[in-house]
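COMPLEX REQUEST
Ligand: nicotinamide-adenine-dinucleotide
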Amino acid sequence: MSVKGVKGAVKQPRLEPAQGMDSVGDTLQRLRESFSAGRTRPAEFRVTQLKGLGRFLRDNKQLLQEALARDLRKSAFEADISEFLMCQMEVTLALKNLHTWMKDEPATKNLLMLLSSTFIRKEPFGLVLIITPWNYPLNLSLVPLVGALAAGNCVVLKPSEISTSTEKVLTEVLPQYLDQSCFAVMLGGPEETGQLLEHKFDYIFFTGSPRVGRIVMTAAAKHLTPITLELGGKNPCYVDDNCDPETVANRVAFFRYFNTGQTCVAPDYVLCSPEMQERLLPALQSTIARFFGEDPQSSPNLGRIINDKHFQRLQGLLGCGRVAIGGQSDQSDRYIAPTVLVDVQETEPVMQEEIFGPILPIVNVRSLDEAIDFINRREKPLALYAFSKSNKVVNEMLDRTSSGTFGSNDGFTYLTLPSLPLGGVGNSGMGRYHGKFSFNTFSHHRACLLSPPGLEKLNDIHYPPYPDWKQRLVRWSLGPQSCTLL
Ligand code: NAD
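STATUS: Structure written out below.
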């Protein structure tokens, strides 16, 4: 079924100069009024929206699969495990836990407020803007959306204009499943998103590049709007000499070439000794052949580069160092072969920018210390991987570096666990989400103290004048020993 054929497809405001900003302003006004009227606050309303999201996923699976295949030639299986299942799991988890997450959280008290009640209220921010990239266009739109809706916000979703087919489904079909007085999709590229960002939002959740992250943060600063920035960068992958090369090759190749390397948490480059490189190369060669066949271009399990601009960028990177495996490309098909580069210089573009494609450079280091120095001289990555049979080596890597996420002897399998947060640090972002972390991200944690209106005599002890006995009593009441009572 094509989007065109969807009955009752919804037209959302497109932030194009020809249409001006009025329709955008009107839409934002409508959402704000719904929020002010308290429409999104009741748990029942949130449950209805979350169920709507679940139905959207179920009813439109084929439509979305086709869209993902058109955008990225994503295989149905990859789409299933990295897009549908993760979205569905987040919806199910939020529905199951919503009432618990919404509950006020009791807070410890001190003696001065023994008769009061203290708690943290998780209240919605209000009008939230979610801006998403193109590489997992469904997952990266819906997973934050689950958190924003569960937390009781009104939401504007701005999907990537680059993954055009998925953008179309999100624009024309998704709103049918949600309350449109509280949810809207807005379309546009850099210019239009810049205009959208001039409006005041109560929270901005951005997933994309560090470069655009800076633009979003600058725009948010004008209104002092709190933000989450889910950014990217270069993720190191250290391979110790004691590893089994076949096992490492399987795991690294799977996570590097998944979604044709267009994954923010993919291992971006390998750091290993020249000896390990010699053992790893034949292992990678045979793994790639086993995964994608002798002619990966004809493999149904390898996707394509999102557009010509990224294809040309990646083709340029193939000229760095020396091609040890792969290296073929075909512009007419936006195909880049799973590639391994060696003899790469730190100063070459492939080691200066996030690769975001099926290219894996290997950089030689002589020791764990040198690998750690190499990593720490660079911006903090979104993900860091360490392969070793030694716990000591893994723990040293963990203790002496920093990154958004960390995996040892594995890739980004942790993303399948909503019990672990996803978020960067430093240049790779700020804030976190997934599961309950999403609910907390999209909630303001309001400190509440409810005191009895009477019993004024009790307050006398902290009013002036301050004789010695009062001072001693108040100091004692405020001291750490009295701060343990619930
Ligand atoms: P991008 O930063 O170019 O675009 C992201 C979004 O920002 C899009 O919706 C786009 O329309 C908008 N945008 C682009 N230029 C803008 C501008 N000048 N002003 C305002 N908005 C603008 O990123 P991309 O190319 O879509 O995605 C790739 C990047 O996203 C990579 O760096 C990758 O690592 C990162 N990423 C991070 C995560 C994560 O979870 N941390 C997940 C996926 C992708």
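REMARKS: The first strand starts at residue 105 and ends at 106. The chain has a mean pLDDT of 94.
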